[in-house]
Structure formats: structure tokens, C-alpha cells
# Entry
Amino acid sequence: MARESRHPDATPTRRASSAEPSASIHRRSILRTPGSQAARGLPRPQGLSASGRKFAPPTPHARAAFRTIDSRRAAIFTPHRVRRKSLREVRDSPRDFLLSLGRVLARNTEVITTSSSSPRDEDKTPGSDGAGNDTTLGMISVGDDDDDDDEELPKRPRLSLPIGEEDDDDDSDDLQPHRSVVIDDDNFTMQSIEMPRRAISEQPGGRFSMGDTRMSDYFNTNDMLHSEDIGVDSGFFPPTAVLDEGNFTMGMDELPSPERLDSDRGRESDFGIEVPVGDINESTFMIAAQVEESPDRAPAAADTDEPMYDDYAPLADQRSDDLDDEDLLGGVPTLEDEPVEARSEEQQDEAETEHAATKRAEMRGSGKKTIKVSKYGIEYPSLPPAVVKRLAQNFATASGAKGKVTPDAMKAIMQASDWFFEQLGEDLQAYAKHAGRKTIDESDVLTLMKRQRQINPNTTPFALAQRHLPRELLQDLRMTPPFAPKTRRKAKGGAEDEDVT
Amino acid sequence: MAGQKLYPRATVKKIVKAHSNCNVSKNADVMMFLDYMLFMQTLMKEATIEAKQGGERGITARSVKKVTADSLAKFRG
# Structure
């Protein structure tokens, strides 16, 4: 806005171009041309471009107008026109910001006025020269109509703008049309502006070359003072020392300052080194000890077998030792201790894996073949793995699993079955005690299965037994059943009726 | 299944007796083992599904472990 007030010609460039160029141009031409002659002459030639231009323009302003119009027209016909339009929109490039900023700052200096005034002079002078060009351009633009003029006009404003700059800008814009490149350049400049600020402290690669040149310069001086030392240092102390010197040689230091800088940098770098150096024995031993320990732990944890146990062990302890929480707490350290022994055992004999397994089992208080102890202190065996495996395999294939059950899976299944029987015993005990018995009866099992929803009106226990159990066991079931099953069913039906009602 | 016993009856009785601290009647273990078979059926079925969902080939320990808790809960009395 301030600019407009100052240089009415300069600012309207953009806005006039966007708003209503034609009218503004007419006004301008009228304003500029002092004489009414020019005022008469101008609008016509613009309206009738061909005839108007063939005749020599009356005033230099008119020439300038023609010339600019022709240039606009030529610009319109140039293929880059679209780009320029696009550029107008994009105009807000860092450079424009800089220009505007410069204008703001230039209030005091008024550099712009001089620059804008000078181009006008230039316009006048080439305007006379451009008369011949005008004719040629006029020939080209002969076919153009007023509409073209209207279209042309948008660019008009630039002429009035600090013309020299803007025209130069136009030329530069013609080059800029690589908008991507322009943006990249802008970014690059932005980065280049920022980079050094950051880089002064660090100055990685870019300054390196700079530092080299400077280094060479200063090395000449330094060579004058201390010939070989610095050269050797520069050679051996690669980037940091060089950079430091490159940065700080700004102050034209003699040797001491780079040494200081190097010492500063060197102190940090040496700091890590020195600590071990100062405490060589202790620190190094500490580190060595850690290094030794860690690999030992890692493989112990990495053992495939142990995680299996580790996963279940706490739970197993929970389940088998619900009474004692201390066992839980005690179970964890034992687990931690196990790997150590396992390690030692493995180191001793890998062939004794079974032995180790038994030891682990003893450690945990639960073994496969060895006797486990229930929470009542009663020892009990676990189901033979062969039976479990056969069952698991049968059901797995029946459920569509491919291949055999892996040993790992078998371990998990065995664990699950142990838990199942534990749960089963507890539940049956609860039912039996609830019935006031000390003996778990078949009715308890039936009640349990009914509660598990394994038995429902549609699936009778007898059907289940027939489906899953072999004949012998069925006969055993029937041994009692001949009368019992019916009673069961009746009882079951009655129970259900009770439930329903 | 054909030639050999399906399961050691005495073992099942001992196990349940130890866990329940109760006596087990004469033929109750058959029904217990029937229940166990149903549990195994459920467990393996779930493990198979889990293994297929996990993209595993065959039943692995991971799938079984994942399913164990649910299956046990299902067979809670």
C-alpha cells in the first residue's frame, strides 16, 4: 500500500493485471501523455492496432506503450505464457518476499525510486529505437483484436513497476518457469541460509571443502610459522580438527588456538578414552566382567526348553501350591537358578539331558514320570504320555490338523491335561462334599459334565460314552448301568425339570 | 485303541484322588476319563483353529498354550 502511494505506477502492476488492466492502461496513458494529441492518438492505435502502429507514434510515451503492448502480445503468443500466468499466482516466492522486504527497508534509501526511474529512462531511449521493432511486432499482431489487448493488458502493469527490476524479473521469470527448480532453489537458499547457522557449530561436509581452502591459506601462514606440525595434524586429524581450524581460523589464530580447539574436542574424545586409561584396571575389568556375564545369561534364556518351563512354571506353582505363596516367590528364584545349573550341566555333559531334566523337575517339585504332589500332600502320577499323545493325535487329525503333534505341543498338552485333572478333582470334590459324601460318585461326574455343558438333553452321557469309549469301558459302564443309567437319566430329567420350573 | 487299553484306570483314579482328597467310586473314573476325552477334543480343536489362524503348520506348542486357558475355563465345574 505504501508503495502504491509512492509509486502509483509501480504497484498497480500486479493488481491491475488481476483486476481491470485495460481501463487502468487507458487512464495511465491519458495521465502520462500530457497532450490531448497523444490522448487521442493512443486509444485508437490500441483499438486499431494495425493502423495505429503503421503510423509513427506521436509521443515517446505512445511508443513506449506500443512497444510494451507488442511485447505483451509477443509474450502472449510465446508458449511460456501459461507458465507466466501460473507464476503470477505462485508469485509468493522467497525472492519476492525479499523484494518486498527490500522495498520496506528501502524507504530510507529510496533506492527503488532511482531504480524505477532509471528504467523509465531506458524505456524512453529504447522506445525510439524500438520503433522499428514496433513495426515488426505490429505486423505480427496485426490480426489481434481488442480482446487481445484486454488479455495483454494484465501484464502491462509491470512496465510501470520498477520497470528495470520487473522487466528483469520477467526475463528471470521466463527462466524461472522451471517452477520446481525455482522452488528447489528457494528451498536450497533457505537451507543454505539455515545450514550455516547450524553448521557453524558442526559444519559437516559442506564446509569441509571450504575449510580445506582456508586451511591451505592459513597453512601457508602457519607454515610460515610452524611448518610441519600443522600439516601433519591436518593430515592425520581428519575432519574435526580441520573443521575447527577452518572455523576458527577466522580469527587468524596461531597454533595455540587450534590446539585449544583441538584440545576441547580432544578432551571429549579423550574423555572416554581417558577414563578407562585412568582406571584401566578397574573399569576395564568391570566391562570385561559384564561382557562375560551377559552372554552367559543370554544363551540360558535362549534355551528352547527352558522358556517352556518358564511359561508354565509359575502357573504350575500357583496351581499345585495354592496354599503356599512362598513357593511362588521361591519358585521364581529357583527358575533363575535353574539356568545356571543347566548351564553347568550342559557344560559337563550334554548327554545327560534327561538327568538335567529330572533335576529341573525335582527343582520344581514336578516331574513327568516322577511323582507330583497335590495340594493335599498326596503324591500322584501323571497320565502316561503315550495315552495323551494318542488321544491328542486322534483328535487333532479329527479336527483337521495336518501332521503330527510336535513334542513341544505334547508338553503343552500334558501340562494342560495335568491342570485339567487338578481342576476336575477339585470340582468333583466340591460336588461330593456338597452331597455329603466322602466318595466321588458317578453322579458327581455326571453333574459336572452337565455343568460343563457336555451333557444336555440332546447328548446323553451314554451316547458320549458310546462315541468315545471302547467297548470294554462301555461294558464297565454298563456293568453298573443296567439299572443305573436309567436312574441317571431319570434323575437328570428330573433335575432339568426342576431347573426349568 | 483297539489292542491296548484306552487308559490306565488306576492312574486316573490316583490322580483325581490326589487332587480331590476324596475316594473315587468304582466306575466313576470311566466318566472322568470320558470328560477328559471331551476336554482333549475341545483343546485340540481349538488348537487346530488357532494354528490355522496363526498360519502355522500343524499344531504347535504356542497354539496349544494359547488355547489351554479357554479350554480349561470351558471345563470349569
Notes: The first helix of chain A runs from residue 2 to 6.
